[in-house]
Structure formats: structure tokens, C-alpha cells
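queue> pop job 88
queue> type: inverse folding (structure -> sequence)
queue> payload:
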């Protein structure tokens, strides 16, 4: 494989800079890599080592950590989680999604590790207007309504799990895909199975081996100058001294990490290379293939299942519908303004990081255009 066209890389950089000038985001850092040849574009006054709140780009990292425990046989994909997550043992299930919160039935089977990995354990964000379903009020009351991460406001893990167990599941385990909540539960499972905090386990098994020195659940005081303000439209969502400036009460496996383009490139290259010192090639292959049945691709209203499947913690392209939509390309986005994808067929990794919150699950045009410009530069 060859690398990139220098002329077309200039087009990539110019297009990204133009988006910033037009106000798509206050600033950005983008990266494209092919087989170890890496190019970075910066715009809006940021630098290559700028820290970003990567929100849901945390999910693939959490899934990798869980797979490490599967390889240890500390977890088994089809084992129930009842012993480690007793808050979910015997939880009730809504008779149907539109039922009253008190109209429930018993579990047909226990929740398994696989249900968490595939986001089919029965809970998640309901992407519907408030009041569409009676259960939405109960979910909002315990902090599970759709919205950006708020790490300083989430209670500690044991308290959070008790709250989660107080609300019935939206569907039977394994029945339907729902977004987000599974990976917060998976983070708690990792901590309890390993006997370590989630951050300590990630450092030992993922960040340390990959040299991801800038990735974690908070930013140290001496590094806060590298963390830009996060924006929601023209408003400030989170300043550098805000919610990521101190360790959170709850380490969110669904959306809590801060990282850099180079740290996330190291993570992506690990997956493209077959796992390196972190996972086996067999585990990477399992994680990065569509794991959902047709019947599970019904819930959440979040992912376009006509073009994507879902592996463990990340989407997988199933049909080529655009320049960058290589079947088998995998990765995920962060609603606080970030995106990363890995393409095994072309050996390409793309990372885009901004501090502008998304306003829809499909993301802004900037994300689409950044992918097109990156791919048109590939030789």
C-alpha cells in the first residue's frame, strides 16, 4: 500500500480550516494515518497535544478492557452478571415499551456479559420527545435521559447501580439494541471483576501498554491549559476548570474519558494491528464485526442499521454508501465533538476532535466532510 497525495492532503487541511472559519467549530485537531504514515491538521489556534472530552469514544475503550478480562477468563461472554451486579439480578421488565412503569414482567433469563458488550441488556437512552413513553420520567429522575455527559453530577458507582436497578428494563435481555447505558454498567462490571477502579484497570491493561499518557477521566491541574472550553452552540458547556478538572464520583465507561488525537491513534492502530500487547487477533475480530441479529436492530432510534452494524462498543460499516464507507470500517463518535474510525481494508485511521457539541446523532457536516477529504487523499 502507498500513502497519501501531498496535494490532496493540502485540500484536506484547507477544507478543515475553512469549516472553522465558517463557524462549524471554534477549533479542531484532525489526524489521518495509513500504515504508520501520519498527518495532522490543526485550526483555530489549537495544538496537536490539545486535550478533548471524547465522550462516547470511551465506549470502544471500555469494550477492549472487558475483552481483556474475557481473555483472562475473569469474565465469560455468556455468563450471567448477577454475582457481580446483584442490583440487576431479578430486575423487572416493562411489558412493552409504552407500558406504565408498574406494568412489568419477570426476566426471561439473566443479563449476560454479551448483552452488555452488544448494548442489548435492556436499558439505554430513548431518543424520543419527553412524554412519549411513561418510563422516560423514571429514567430522567435517575439521570438517564438523553444528553451530554455530566461527570460531576453522577453519583458513585454503587449508588448509581442501585438507582438503575430501581427502574424496569425497557426490553428483555438480548431482545433489542439501546444506546449508551450498557457501557456505564460494563465499566462497573470491569471494576468489580478486576478488583480495581476502572481507571486503574484501563491504565494497567490499555493506556500503559499503548503509551496513552494523556488519556483518563480527568485532567491534572498542570495540563488544564491544554483543555479548551467545550461549547454548545454559542454557549459554554464546560470550561477548562469545569467537570473534567477533578476525578469524577463515577468513572463513566460510556462517555467519561479525555484524550488526544495521538493517544487515540495509538488505540486505533492497536486494533488495526490485531491487538498488539493488549488483545489477541481473535478478540479484535470478534469486537469489530456486527454482533446484532436482525431482530435486535430495532431500539433506540440512534444508529442507521441500513448501513451500520454494531460490534462490541462500536459501529461497523456493512454497506458502502459514501466515499469513506468501507465495509468493515469500525469506530465511534463522541457527542461533545469528536470522531474516530479504523479501516482494515485500507489500513487507514481517522481522528477528528473539536470542542463543539453535536446537535443530532448523525453529527455535523464537518464530520462527513473531514472523512471525505481524508479518503480522497489516500493513494
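queue> result:
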Amino acid at each position: 500500500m502507498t500513502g497519501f497525495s501531498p496535494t490532496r492532503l493540502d485540500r484536506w487541511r484547507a477544507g478543515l480550516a475553512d469549516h472553522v472559519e465558517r463557524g462549524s467549530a471554534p477549533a479542531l485537531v484532525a489526524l489521518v494515518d495509513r500504515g504508520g504514515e501520519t498527518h495532522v491538521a490543526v485550526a483555530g489556534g489549537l495544538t496537536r497535544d490539545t486535550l478533548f472530552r471524547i465522550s462516547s469514544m470511551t465506549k470502544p475503550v471500555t469494550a477492549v478492557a472487558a475483552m481483556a478480562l474475557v481473555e483472562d477468563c475473569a469474565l465469560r461472554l455468556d455468563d450471567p452478571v448477577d454475582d457481580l451486579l446483584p442490583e440487576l439480578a431479578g430486575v423487572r421488565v416493562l411489558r412493552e415499551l409504552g407500558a406504565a412503569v408498574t406494568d412489568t414482567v419477570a426476566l426471561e433469563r439473566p443479563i449476560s456479559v454479551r448483552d452488555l458488550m452488544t448494548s442489548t441488556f435492556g436499558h439505554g437512552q430513548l431518543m424520543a420527545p419527553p412524554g412519549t413513553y411513561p418510563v422516560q420520567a423514571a429514567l430522567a429522575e435517575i439521570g438517564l435521559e438523553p444528553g451530554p455527559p455530566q461527570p460531576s453530577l453522577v453519583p458513585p458507582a454503587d449508588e448509581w447501580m442501585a438507582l438503575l436497578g430501581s427502574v424496569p428494563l425497557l426490553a428483555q435481555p438480548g431482545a433489542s439494541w439501546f444506546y449508551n447505558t450498557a457501557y456505564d454498567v460494563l465499566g462497573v462490571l470491569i471494576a468489580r471483576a478486576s478488583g480495581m477502579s476502572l481507571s486503574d484497570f484501563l491504565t494497567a491493561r490499555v493506556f500503559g501498554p499503548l503509551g496513552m499518557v494523556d488519556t483518563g477521566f480527568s485532567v491534572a491541574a498542570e495540563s488544564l491549559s491544554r483543555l479548551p472550553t467545550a461549547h454548545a452552540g454559542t454557549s459554554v458547556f464546560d470550561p477548562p476548570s469545569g467537570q473534567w478538572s477533578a476525578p469524577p464520583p463515577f468513572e463513566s465507561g460510556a462517555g467519561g474519558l479525555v484524550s488526544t488525537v495521538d493517544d487515540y491513534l495509538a488505540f486505533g492502530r492497536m486494533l488495526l494491528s490485531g491487538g498488539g500487547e493488549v488483545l489477541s487477533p481473535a478478540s479484535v475480530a470478534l469486537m469489530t464485526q456486527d454482533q446484532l441479529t436482525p431482530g435486535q436492530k430495532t431500539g433506540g432510534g440512534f444508529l442507521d442499521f441500513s448501513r451500520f452494524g454494531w460490534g462490541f462498543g462500536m459501529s461497523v460499516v456493512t454497506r458502502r454508501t459514501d466515499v469513506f464507507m468501507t465495509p468493515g470500517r469500525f469506530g465511534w463518535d463522541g457527542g461533545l465533538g469528536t470522531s474516530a474510525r479504523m479501516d482494515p481494508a485500507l489500513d487507514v485511521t481517522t481522528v477528528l476532535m473539536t470542542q463543539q457539541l453535536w446537535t443530532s446523532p448523525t453529527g455535523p457536516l464537518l464530520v462527513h466532510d473531514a472523512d471525505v477529504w481524508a479518503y480522497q487523499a489516500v493513494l
